[in-house]
From TrEMBL, chain A:
SMART domains: Ald_Xan_dh_C (SM01008). One of its GO terms (molecular function) is oxidoreductase activity. It holds the Pfam family MoCoBD_2. SUPFAM superfamilies: CO dehydrogenase molybdoprotein N-domain-like (SSF54665), Molybdenum cofactor-binding domain (SSF56003). The lineage of its organism: Bacteria, Pseudomonadati, Pseudomonadota, Alphaproteobacteria, Hyphomicrobiales. It comes from the Bacteria. The keyword Secreted does not apply. Keywords: Molybdenum, Oxidoreductase. This is Xanthine dehydrogenase family protein molybdopterin-binding subunit. Residues 28-134 form the Aldehyde oxidase/xanthine dehydrogenase a/b hammerhead domain.
From TrEMBL, chain B:
Residues 4-80 form the 2Fe-2S ferredoxin-type domain. It holds the Pfam family Fer2_2. This is (2Fe-2S)-binding protein. InterPro entries: 2Fe-2S-bd (IPR002888), 2Fe-2S-bd_dom_sf (IPR036884), 2Fe-2S_ferredoxin-like_sf (IPR036010), 2Fe-2S_ferredoxin-type (IPR001041), 2Fe2S_fd_BS (IPR006058), Beta-grasp_dom_sf (IPR012675), Diverse_Oxidoreductases (IPR051452). It comes from the Bacteria. Gene3D superfamilies: 3.10.20.30, [2Fe-2S]-binding domain. PANTHER family: OXIDOREDUCTASE WITH IRON-SULFUR SUBUNIT (PTHR44379). GO terms for molecular function: 2 iron, 2 sulfur cluster binding; metal ion binding; oxidoreductase activity. Keywords: 2Fe-2S, Iron, Iron-sulfur, Metal-binding, Oxidoreductase.
Amino acid sequence: MNMRVKGERAFKVVGTRPPRPDGVDKVIGRALYGADVSAPGMLTGHILRSPHAHAEIVSIDTSAAEALPGVKAVITSGDFGVPEDSALRDVQDHCMARGKVLYDGHAVAAVAATSPAVAKAALKLIKVEYRKLPHVTDVDEAMKPDAPVVQSGLVHETVAPGFSENVTSYCEFGHGDLEAGFAKADRIIERSFTTAATHQGYIEPHACLASMNADGKADLWCCTQGHYHVRAVCSAILGMEASQLKVTASEIGGGFGGKTTVFIEPVALALSRKSGRPVKMVMSRDEVFRATGPTVATSTDVKIGMTKDGRITAAEARLRYSGGAFPCGTVEMGAQAAFAPYDLDAVRTYGWNVLTNRPKEASYRAPGAPQAIYAVESVVDELCLELGLDPLDVRVKNAAQKGTLSSYGPTFDDIGLMATLEAAKAHPHWSAPLGPNQGRGFSAGFWFNFGGNTCVTLNINTDGTVSVTEGNPDIGGSRASISQMAAEELGVPYEKVRTVIGDTTSIGHSDITDGSRVTFAVGLATIKAARDAIQKMCSRVAQIWGIDEEAVVWEDGYVKPASPNAGDFKPMSIEEIAAISFQTGGPIAGHHEVNAEGAGVSFGVHIADVEVDPETGATKVLRYTVFQDAGKAVHPDYVEGQMQGGAAQGIGWALNEEYIYGEDGRLQNPGFLDYRVPVASDLPRIEPVILEIPNPGHPYGVRGVGETSIVPPLAALSNAVSRALGVRMTRLPMSPPTILKAVSAAGV
Amino acid sequence: MKSIHVAATINGDPAEFVCEPQETLLDVLRNRLGLTGVKEGCGTGDCGACSVTVNGRLVCSCLVLGGEVQGAEIGTIEGMADADRLHPLQQSFIDNAALQCGVCTPGILVAAEALLKKNPDPTETEIRYWLAGNLCRCTGYDKIVQAVQDAAQQMRGA
């Protein structure tokens, strides 16, 4: 068998914009999300949560709750074991406090009852005696040696002495001689920045339906970005074998990284085990804010030296991230990403993870990168202003390119940064005039992207249509792009292919939908699975024709003789081959299982125009343009959607969104009224410009696009506001009070 | 507390249900009538995912009690398509890729339909302000606004 491989591939299906396969279900309200299913005899589960930021649990008395008619089970941490694995223990302790509550909203007990009203009444009957402990929610405060200690005994050996025990890990990246580099600079700027914790803000709260039978077999339906991960974690927590727990991923109402772990799923399973009934749990929005999500809160120092003509001579950053009450590695990603857009001779980043009395951080779209790059791009912008240089020209002058030794170690392959910069420079937005109180900001952004473990089965149905089964929840239209890649490779129409996401028993392990990996890795596995099926179909036809497998070729959905020498045979279509498959050796399927490498890093640059009202401090975004390298945009609509959606989230982060903690350590704004995400009237059109610099690691050149788009908005907005005001902004969000304070402090 | 018996019209069909006095219309629709196309995003009227119409008026069903809708005509996403023919707004949302995760989509479609009934030719700004009560976290609203504009144009032509 031969594949006809062309030099410059002319795509037929990839790059078009067909309707998504789940579209109709979603516009008629029939798509089933986490909270949309029920089971016979189902109970409702609710969780009792800590009202304190930090307290010892002296005792829990559940007897009155258990006695309430309709209550079928009450559980506490005593109903779980204590996992030996520290990461698993953290996940479990986050789901149900053991000994101590570590943040406002930490779960302490759960109830399953015959109705929501009974469950809520039962929660009020649970008596918890707390002994309050001093708390700390601010990252810089938590690092001080005399800070209240959130959890003891977690300090990694990399941490130098002199900090609080809250500082759990330290990391360092970079290369070159910083001192020599700074000596060459004409101007050095050093500044400190802070960013508030934000929440992913998915519209669908976490929800699940768990059912465990007396024989120990269990089913779990839940909204998640990774049902294999849910299976692994829940089965370990519940002490089950993975094969006995079947997890089905529902349609998912947004995740953005926040649904890559478990919160209520082990609790629902434990309640089901104890009650012997199916248990449905749905979080309230208040619970979502208090006990799931948020990003790290950060405090960062950046120092950059630049020559008069705009060459960066040395750069360093100190990053202090807090991912709440449990250790997290996000600062390492920030420290690696901080200077990724630059080709630098001397660069160093240092990062510290810090515990605070906040909920455990969950990933949020390019976790750790937006905060680091915000600080770096703010200082670069200030240097450009002081030296009278064009910020885009300076980025071009220092841009990382193919062959650049990146600031975090690897040497870059084909990357699209220069292409996005050139596209931005040529775009009319960059040269459009600005009015009074208006400013234009620019920022580059970067994300690593990920490949990972992936399984795909591609069945050739007996009518010649194609069923693709994969294991990655679709959070942004990926079923459409997977179907497109299958159709492209097979040479069949898109409409002949249907892609479904299997449950954990129907296909092998697939890593979480994260790292912008699905279109890349599942796409790659789908293409290879299609090739596997093609090989089998070629083999069947060669057998029928009585010629060598090498003498046939697959082209546009047909097996054909490879050349006139192979013989005179009428090409056989996929339909014909499928129709007689039972006579030629049985059903035909292609498979591919891979730990995909070569994801290909992603770059994007954003331009933002704002107008700031100097009287009120309110900022209006006037115009916004996103330039991003997609490698190859399989379904351009959904690539644009990722670019626009990430930009909108970043705009919210820059201007409004923040976790606000009171003196008592309690979250003061756990609702969409006070935690204000951008609404339609807050935003202008967000213009997406797709660049396509093929990723050599993917057969079609695809690279992930989902995360990079949230990275540049923070600095793009901050630089725009700073230029509009003539005052350098150094903290996010730039809510009106923050802007008024900065203006009055500067005496402008 | 005593349960309440309610008779109403839902998506054009007569419906009866019994609910508790504190039960919201959202809970009734989802849990008692199986209309799970109506979504709960916040339960406090801030996100619009539970948007329905009551006697033609756009409301958040989480802010209405089930006991309040005696005799009312209620419209939900499940009643928007005409049998298997999608409403132009629904088709336009698919054609414009105006949904990603899709969980806000039912509420936004119901809200957009209510807008176009009042104002068949809204400007972009009017669409943005009308939909300001419906949160979407995935799209940045761009393609949603475009989809509403396209559907409005098509409906005016029809």
